Amino acid sequence: MRAFFIGRFQPYHLGHHEVLREIFSEVDEVVIGIGSAQESHTVENPFTAGERIMMVDRAVGEIKNPGQKVYIVPLEDVYRNSLWVSHVVSMTPYFDVIYSNNPLVIRLFREAGFEVRRTRMFNRMEYHGTEIRRRMISGERWEDLVPEPVVDVIEEIDGVRRIREIANTDF
Amino acid sequence: MRAFFIGRFQPYHLGHHEVLREIFSEVDEVVIGIGSAQESHTVENPFTAGERIMMVDRAVGEIKNPGQKVYIVPLEDVYRNSLWVSHVVSMTPYFDVIYSNNPLVIRLFREAGFEVRRTRMFNRMEYHGTEIRRRMISGERWEDLVPEPVVDVIEEIDGVRRIREIANTDF
Amino acid sequence: MRAFFIGRFQPYHLGHHEVLREIFSEVDEVVIGIGSAQESHTVENPFTAGERIMMVDRAVGEIKNPGQKVYIVPLEDVYRNSLWVSHVVSMTPYFDVIYSNNPLVIRLFREAGFEVRRTRMFNRMEYHGTEIRRRMISGERWEDLVPEPVVDVIEEIDGVRRIREIANTDF
Amino acid sequence: MRAFFIGRFQPYHLGHHEVLREIFSEVDEVVIGIGSAQESHTVENPFTAGERIMMVDRAVGEIKNPGQKVYIVPLEDVYRNSLWVSHVVSMTPYFDVIYSNNPLVIRLFREAGFEVRRTRMFNRMEYHGTEIRRRMISGERWEDLVPEPVVDVIEEIDGVRRIREIANTDF
Amino acid sequence: MRAFFIGRFQPYHLGHHEVLREIFSEVDEVVIGIGSAQESHTVENPFTAGERIMMVDRAVGEIKNPGQKVYIVPLEDVYRNSLWVSHVVSMTPYFDVIYSNNPLVIRLFREAGFEVRRTRMFNRMEYHGTEIRRRMISGERWEDLVPEPVVDVIEEIDGVRRIREIANTDF
Amino acid sequence: MRAFFIGRFQPYHLGHHEVLREIFSEVDEVVIGIGSAQESHTVENPFTAGERIMMVDRAVGEIKNPGQKVYIVPLEDVYRNSLWVSHVVSMTPYFDVIYSNNPLVIRLFREAGFEVRRTRMFNRMEYHGTEIRRRMISGERWEDLVPEPVVDVIEEIDGVRRIREIANTDF
């Protein structure tokens, strides 16, 4: 069975990690969509799709069995909800079920006749992109909120410096 | 070292296969871009990006070592050559070198300061997407021109029937 | 004489109804543009253009004479004000006059040399899309604020459930 | 029962007329999509969507009963076949069946699970947009190949002069 | 040496003027990009790119020497930060250095390997587009905050009336 | 009086030069639009908009008086003829008259109510972009067909090598 899961992964954090751990306990193959792939270099979306592919790829290595399969697919926005499911379907390998907690994602896939499974929430206070980006900008400790391989990727691309420079309005 | 290679893969065939075999003999990681990802359901571009991900993924399993890594990334056209390299770079993991035989790809990456390596040609008469699609439409034998896993994918999606129906103008 | 009137119709309500009743008392033919036609499945724009065509079509049947003519035309946004009048003109049958109360619509058509007539406001407190959508989401009574045929359309498409699901952030 | 039929209508001609006459003999309501709505002022697509709405609207008046219903909806191209059915569905009132002779339209709707009915061909030599536009440009008689109300619309907009001027390369 | 400077110029004001005066004291040629060129007829972006070309052109005549050169280039948004530098480079004559105080502009050009120089701020309270547009709308005196030739352009196009009409929600 | 003239300028050649010489003999100010500004790095459109700005700017210096004024404005395609005039108008300083020999340009501006003046043709055999690009690719002498400053620009950007590399299909 193949599942679909989508996130923006700005950055990939332990909340995503726990959800994917659960999904891999139920299915053998997962297509992970990287949403808003065209976005980068903003406070809300600091990382490029390519950088996020690296984060997801390395982190997922920690939670899946060798026999399990993952496809990581960047998905540009189409800006029309009525076309979005067709867009996802055309860009990804066939999947049988969607895992999501996003009301719009759930609604759109259900309207299109897909099976959707609700995912659990894990420590939503801290495991949340907004909180992690806030800490990066303010210079607080964020490294405990993401898997270790993601810390490595962000260091390799000097990501904290990027988000701090973009956030800078001090002049 | 990580390399970038791009094709439309309509479908993935033995020409691609031999080029990638050579690339994997030289580098450890390859980013394979699926060009014109937004195209499908035409005689020139019958297969969706998702279907082409399946073809590439299964075929590459035949030629790379377990220790080697492949990233498969669908790339929508941006319709502006001057933006294309930036588009590719933003959508893919960082790479050190490009392998290509396409004059425009070579020129654009070289103008942007990248190292580009020319690839060899393998039986260009037969190992060519146009020829394979022509055979699919006319009912000739095409299966010998693609790796076996690609035959499987095209059968699973009933791909020959799709291209023949679209090509049909006989009424 | 042919008039042009535009609205988003999310949903069509009694405010639109009264304005159109006035317009039909002055002209014989009306082109009704459905604005932001590409939008759907959001709290602000829950209904598709096709669903809104149904609402407008059935409601207008209540207020026009058999000899009067209506054209209902979905209009996608062009995201450039300086092109918008040309866009509308190209997508619609020729018209002689615009009815509107929207400052931007008035300004753009006047700059382009068209005659624009101000419309009256009817009970703007209640006859307003925002208020009606708020009631749908909160489970209050909204059916008195739209013409009866619009209630029918929204029921046929199970529209209240859609907006409530999309608005749901309770998890 | 509601049917969907699409054409570019450059211009609406007797071939379209006979097909629609057949459709109206089988169903009560027809949604007529005006394809490539964004195109105009070229030799292939001389008329705007608004002008084509006029042609279709007046011509259809000749062939449907008073109790039958027609919706005329301009449809801009989306340039991605995999999104096209979702685009059409979002822009139009719900329909039960598609009438078409276009292989791509047939394939795309069938892949999406719709019922498609093949339409008959009527004097395809003469009742064809290309032939009619050729006659307009060369100054030959084209008026017998379209319904009379379409002749009126083309005269009102001085349409023959437009296509001849655009086609002019004699300088 | 040739420099690049970008602004939205809604409208061109004395803050831009002082920065450009400094730039012209350091380099011989300046490419001035008119950002968000596609925007017009909103409270935030009232003037078209063409109108802003006029403002910049006439104002710059006051501060550059006859031997110095200016290129004024409207730049439409590309809505993807990762493509923006390539977009600017393709649309403009070659330049050696960028002058800017915008964190995103600085970051994007530096990431692309360009030299960027910080500009000084001049009376940021008053010399600011938002403040000037606010005064235009409220009927206060704004003419002292822009160079005299800009007052002339805005009068020629009746620009204050435009922004006031668009801002009007009083009905 | 201000005139508008548009070309693709791939490259700017003596045909353009003679037409502009005539225009400058009739009017004081000319807005020169650089058409298909987004195109570059193809055999049909080898040069970027920025490179073409350089060609036009330097060449026009040869034919206008010091008291005459030129505005050079890159214009991206909008892919919809019905919006094109509004696009041009929004991106350029106001103009009173259009000079053109292109049937579509003439038709679109006349339909919008503008005065259009036909330009003469000068040695259309040789002074033609297609012929000049053909000579560049084949290694023949092209330098006599463009003004001298254009030769300089093309040498500075190593333009002949670019078009030859892109045209290369010899492998």
TrEMBL record, chains A, B, C, D, E, F:
E.C. code: 2.7.7.1
Catalytic reactions on record: beta-nicotinamide D-ribonucleotide + ATP + H(+) = diphosphate + NAD(+)
Keywords for the protein's UniProt record, in alphabetical order: ATP-binding, Cytoplasm, NAD, Nucleotide-binding, Nucleotidyltransferase, Pyridine nucleotide biosynthesis, Transferase
Residues covered by the Cytidyltransferase-like domain: 4-135
One GO MF term: nicotinamide-nucleotide adenylyltransferase activity
Keyword match Transferase: yes
Pathways involved: Cofactor biosynthesis; NAD(+) biosynthesis; NAD(+) from nicotinamide D-ribonucleotide: step 1/1
Protein name, entry field: Nicotinamide-nucleotide adenylyltransferase
Listed SUPFAM superfamilies: Nucleotidylyl transferase
Localization per record: Cytoplasm
UniProt record similarity statement: Belongs to the archaeal NMN adenylyltransferase family.
NCBIfam families: arch_NMN_Atrans (TIGR01527), cyt_tran_rel (TIGR00125), PRK01153.1 (NF002243)
InterPro entries from the UniProt entry: Cyt_trans-like, NMN_Atrans_arc, Rossmann-like_a/b/a_fold
HAMAP family recorded: NMN_adenylyltr
